[in-house]
């Protein structure tokens, strides 16, 4: 019976490409694994899979009685709802250490890098397994996505070196140009339902017992949201009530200006002032330099709840 490799709910490109890449590696070293997903794929991820000839991983929501590897997260709230009834064989992640626990020893690869696929590249090197060209291309794209084409403060030398190595394997002469293609796909939001946009890259966090949802939309020109910010803000309010959340935030990240406008609906009117030193005006605030939810948004927010 194969083990499954699965990322977080509302999967992004790193989550999906990690599942594919790790499954291939595990099979290559004699451990039968199958990639899976916990939700529908974003246009960017579909672009990557189509470019490198992959089918979508199996949509599988229940893992009771199954064995699985967790990629791109270690927070219970982001994993399968029945994760407590599964056997966790390993965690491969680049975020803060979450609250998933196990009753038996497990394999852990957790590194402070910009992308889970960077860690999986290290795993391929460790095991001496050759990476197929199509998997290398998908891994490279995931790293470019997560590091915002090396602009994110989460980007490390390891991420850049891995992109260079993977691009050579995949036969991609200009990886950054391909990265811009991906972000143009991400920026094509017109005609997309508001709820789909809000949930395109959305994660829930447990912050001192408070459920906080944080979404992010990365585009090459923030002006595309000018006519829809009111609708986005209204949907955040609806999402907050539906999920019993303390707060919901949506980062509208301009990758060219290297900053984010944050839309906020919260039980605490001073939420952003406490966490980031800038108060919202009518539920909005622009913060220069904010590019990373993982490194720049979640930690100070978590600290503000803990304090």
From TrEMBL:
It comes from the Bacteria. The keyword Oxidoreductase does not apply. Its cofactor is Mn(2+). This is inorganic diphosphatase. It is an enzyme of class 3 (hydrolase). Pfam families: DHH, DHHA2. Its EC number is 3.6.1.1. Coiled coil: none annotated.
């Amino acid at each position: 019976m194969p083990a499954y490799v699965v990322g977080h709910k509302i999967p992004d490109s790193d989550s999906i490409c990690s599942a594919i890449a790790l499954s291939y590696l595990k099979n290559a070293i004699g451990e039968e694994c199958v990639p899976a997903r916990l939700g529908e794929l974003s246009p960017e991820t579909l672009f990557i899979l189509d470019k490198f000839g992959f089918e979508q991983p199996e949509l599988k929501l229940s893992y009771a009685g199954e064995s699985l590897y967790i990629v791109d997260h270690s927070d219970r709230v982001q994993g399968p709802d029945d994760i407590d009834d599964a056997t966790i064989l390993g965690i491969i992640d680049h975020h803060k250490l979450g609250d998933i626990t196990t009753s038996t020893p497990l394999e852990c690869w957790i590194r402070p890098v910009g992308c889970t696929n960077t860690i999986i590249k290290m795993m391929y090197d460790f095991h001496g397994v050759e990476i197929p060209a199509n998997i290398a291309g998908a891994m490279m794209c995931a790293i470019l996505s997560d590091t915002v084409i090396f602009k994110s403060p989460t980007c490390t030398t390891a991420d850049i070196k891995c992109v260079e190595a993977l691009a050579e394997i995949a036969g991609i002469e200009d990886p950054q140009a391909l990265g811009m293609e991906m972000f143009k796909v991400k920026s094509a939001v017109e005609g997309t339902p508001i709820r789909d946009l809000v949930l395109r890259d959305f994660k829930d966090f447990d912050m001192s017992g408070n459920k906080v949802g944080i979404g992010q939309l990365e585009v090459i020109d923030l002006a595309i949201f000018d006519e829809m910010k009111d609708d986005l803000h209204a949907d955040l309010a609806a999402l907050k009530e539906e999920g019993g959340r303390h707060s919901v935030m949506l980062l509208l990240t301009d990758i060219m200006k290297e900053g984010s406008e944050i839309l906020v609906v919260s039980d605490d009117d001073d939420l952003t002032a406490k966490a980031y030193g800038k108060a919202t005006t009518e539920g909005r605030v622009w913060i220069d330099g904010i590019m990373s939810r993982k490194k720049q948004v979640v930690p100070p927010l978590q600290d503000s709840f803990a304090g």
